[in-house]
Structure formats: C-alpha cells, structure tokens
Amino acid sequence: MNAKQKWMIGGAFALVVVLVAAAFAWFAGSDATEPTPPVAAPRSPEPSAQGNNGATGFGDPTTDLAGRKVMIPNNPAGMILPQRDPGPRTECSTDQPTTSPGGVMIQRTFNVATLFSETDGPTTSDGNVISGYSRTPQGAALAGWNVIARSYVGGQVTVDSIRQMTVPSPELDALLDNPDREGADPKNLQSLQAPDAFRVLSCDPDFVSVEWGMKRTVDENGALPSPIWKGIRTNLLWRDGDWRAQFNRESISAGQTYSALDGTWTRWSL
What we know:
Helix content is 22%, strand content 27%. It is α+β, with helices and mostly antiparallel strands and 270 residues long. The strands form 3 sheets. Strands 7, 8, 9, 10, 11 and 12 form a 6-stranded antiparallel beta sheet that branches. The protein has a 4-stranded mixed beta sheet with strand order 1-2-3-4. Strands 5-6 form a two-stranded antiparallel ribbon. The relative contact order is 0.18. Keywords: Plasmid.
C-alpha cells in the first residue's frame, strides 16, 4: 500500500474511516478492504491550516484535478457568500432532479474541498464550523458534503465539525473524546476533490437522503479509458435549526459505481 492509499484509510476518526473509507480509498485507487484507525501520534498542524483567523477575501484561485476553479479564502475556515433568493426551482420531487443550489463555489478550507453557495448556505462561520443551511434538499446536500470533507482534516476541526453538525450518538462521542486521532497529510488532502454531482433519494422538510457522485479517471494501472463515478450516501436530519448528518452504519455508505451520471443527478451550478 503506498503513502497516498494509507492516508485515505487512516486519515480520520475511527468510525468515519470505517464508514466512508471504502469510497475515498476507491477514489484514490486503493485496493484495501479493511480500514483501520490511525495509530500515529497527532501531527502539529501547519499554522495556515487550522483556526478561524477572521480574515476576509480570497487569495489567488487554483483548480482541482477536474480543472474546476477552486477559491482559496484568506480565512482558512472559509468565506461566507452573500445570500440571495433562489427563485423558482425543483426541491423535493419524485419525477425530476433537484435544482442545484445557486452560485456554488468550491473553497479550499482547512485544505479540503468544501462547497459554499449564494442561495442555500452556509451562512455562518464560527470557529472551525460552517453552518446555517437552508431547510431544503439543496441545503442538506451542501451540509452533508461539508461535514464529510472536514471529517478528514483531523484535530479540533474534525472534533468541532462532527460534534456540531452530526446527529449525536454515544459511539461518536466516545470516539471524539479520544485525543490520539490525526488528520490526513494536508498536501494529500488537496487531492480529494468535491463531488461532481448529487441526487436526492428521499426528501421531506425534516429528512433528506443524499448521494454524491465522486469522479475517478485513474486507477492503480493508470488512466481509465472512460471516467467512472462512485456514489457516497448519507442522511441529513433537520435538528435545532440546521441539517445534521447521520454518521452511523445504517445511514452512511459507499454506494454503487456508475459509468455515467444520468438525468437523475444534479451537477453544481459552478
């Protein structure tokens, strides 16, 4: 197993690793099937990688592996975007795909690809946590991805994000109280790009099941003749005025592999 494969397996807290490592290892080209919790001592984070410094604005942008524009906020925690009314759109529907959140921006926050929008949040950045999503499937799709992404940062960022943006459980609490969990190498985290698209599998005002499509163009043998996508799924519950992800074995999973994203998927309005 090479170094890149190892960080995908051992880069987050134990429960989150077990639940989603299969999907991220697949994305990285790993053939590992038994993810294990990290055992190394926590790394000291880079000064620029952790902590909300209150700065505004952006540095020079970059691109991800798919060539999509990625903004680099001057505040490592992220830059909240001004919000606007989305206008008429499809939200919970059984016969057509959900409309994308409006004005979506990929921001590299704490070295991971997170999603911000002009219509559905997040609207608040408090310490290490971004929150304040609209009570819509669009808001749920953004909230779910962002807490999954930040679960790979490690340290206090992951602890705060999971504590505040997931449905509490004794199992999660016990894991978050363990101080000996480290995040992935910040340089490798940048290889984890935002999903290409999402789709809503089940939806009502208090519950949304979302699947995100992760693109892969290479494997251990090199470039693939055609890209494929891996689905990652979890549930979001509306609790205490925001969407909270369910991180349990029944709710979060690496779904099936797709040769194309058909018309049931929604691509972000980047």
